[in-house]
Amino acid sequence: MSSSIVLPPSFGYVAAGLVSTVWVLGWQMLVVGKHRKRSGIKYPQLYAEKAEAEASKDAFLFNCAQRAHQNTIEHMPIVVVTTLVTSMKNPVFAGYACGLWALSRVLYTLGYTTGDPAKRNTRGGILGELPLFGLFLGSTYTAFDLLRSSA
Length: 151
Fold this sequence. Notes:
This protein has 151 residues and is mainly alpha-helical. 75% of the residues lie in helices and 0% in strands. The chain has six helices and no strands.
């Protein structure tokens, strides 16, 4: 017995939004790699030790880049799940929200890697909270609507 999943024509927005997160993660990996090389922090060390970061601006910037990347990775399960659930009812909104969130992570990373971690949110990185909140609401509404319609 076979079954099929029919995707709406506007599902391309969802795919584009999700793929944009992959590109952002790849770019962040390059940023982390650049700062790792400059700082001389060897693998498998995840972060520069406190003394290293205090003694070296390059080590501190490595920690900033690594933290921006790690924070993005921490958000990814939430972004992917809420994007996919929201897309069941509102694929265009889900795709745009995911893409805007990905763009905000670029701003977040650029701010964080200035060497002043507070700039991670003052350079536009905080804007990612708006599409993320929209995805929270959209996925909650979609889940509720699906449950209601199945009753």
